[in-house]
Amino acid sequence: MNPSYYYREFVRYLKSAKSAVISSTVVIALAVLLLGIFLTLSINSVKLLKLIRDKVEIDAYLNDDLPSTEISKLITSIKTIGGVKNVNYVSKDDAAKQFAEDFGQDILEVFDHNPLPASLKINLYDEYKTIDRIEKIKAELQKNKEINDIVYAQKNLEILERNSQSLVFLNLSLLVIITFSSIFLIGNTIRLMIVNQRENIEIMKLIGATKETIRTPFIIEGFFQGLVGSLLAVVVLNIFLGYFYANYANNDFNFSIMDTKFLILLVIFGSILGTVGSAISIRRFLKFA
After folding, report:
1. Beta bridge partners of 151
2. pTM beyond cutoff 0.85
3. Residue 52 class from Cβ within 10 Å (0-12 exposed, 13-18 middle, 19+ buried)?
4. What's the chain's Rg over C-alpha atoms?
């Protein structure tokens, strides 16, 4: 069949069913927009969990008046423990400065002396930031008599370990639900457009047109609607995320806005949704017509 025929039929379908075309295009745009928002929130929620995990470290508080030589030996010893990435020494004066930054008040205004102990901030490799492994490292640290107390963000780790796997499962489940729901809704919307062309389809069948000849213009139309709808969704998504980032972003958490490659993938996804939805609808119509 001459490609110009498909083009003429495509244009004729667009003109004869404007309301149905607009409706299916809007449905595709909403589906792609919903998917884009979901993926943005999903990616940033995973990023937020990683940020929380990255901040997990062990604070080993030291006994007072330890000689610098003993502190150096202790640091060297701790670095040999499996999972330890690096060790930073925090003096009493450094602890007082940190207190002033956190609470906006000099520690000497509260006490007549600096009660804050010197400490070691022990950073771990990511794979060791679990409660079981940290407890083993903590047991090793407790063997050192120079250390008075050991603390870490156990509650944060409990939350991470309890929710990380659930979050991944929830994200995958929602992705599948959104995708199949979108195909269903788009397919039904496009089906209404196809029903409007029932008479034309019946005439084409009577004059001997093949199913492929009948089907192709609708599939092209589905692709076109998917392309336009997804482009519209990408524009709205960009505006929404730009506004959100400008008004709610903070220095602690760098909210990720989707890059160009991701937006192109959304357009491709929307085009595929329109094409698949149209192909399924016209296939069912021809099968039962």
Report:
1. 59
2. no
3. middle
4. 31
54-111 pLDDT, tens digit per residue, is 888 999 999 988 888 999 999 999 999 999 999 999 988 888 888 788 777 777 776 7
255-259: long-range contacts, CB 8 A cutoff, minimum separation 24 = 255/44, 256/40, 256/43, 256/44, 256/47, 257/40, 258/36, 258/39, 258/40, 258/43
CB 123 within 8 A of CB 116: no
Contacts of residue 29, Cβ cutoff 8 Å, sequence gap at least 6: 228, 229, 230, 232, 233, 236, 270
Positions of E strands within the chain: 58-62, 84-90, 119-124, 147-152
- Cα–Cα distance list, 40 to 12, 80, 242 (Å): 38, 40, 12
For the chain, domains (ranges, CATH) are: 3-52+160-288 (no CATH), 57-152 (3.30.70.3040)
One-letter identity of residue 57: E
Q: Which of 142, 1, 116, 136 is nearest to 60 (CA)?
A: 142
Amino acid code (one letter) for 284 = R
DSSP class of residue 49 equals: H
Cα separation, 12 vs 269, whole angstroms: 26
Q: Which residue has the tokens 């034309």?
A: 200
Residue pair 267/33 in contact by the 8 Å Cβ criterion: no
Residue 189: both structure tokens together? 């919307």
141, 147 contact by CB (below 8 A):
yes
CA distances for 269 relative to 179, 212, 260, angstroms = 10, 24, 14
**CA distance linking residue 180 with residue 191, whole number of Å:** 16
Say which amino acid occupies 219: I
Q: What is the pLDDT of residue 16?
A: 59
- What DSSP element (H or E) covers 279? helix 260-288
Distance CA 37, CA 174 (A): 12
Of the candidates 128, 126, 165, the residue with the CA atom closest to the CA atom of residue 46: 165
Residues of the chain with pLDDT under 70: 1-18, 20, 110, 186-187, 189-190, 193-194, 196-197, 247-258, 286-289
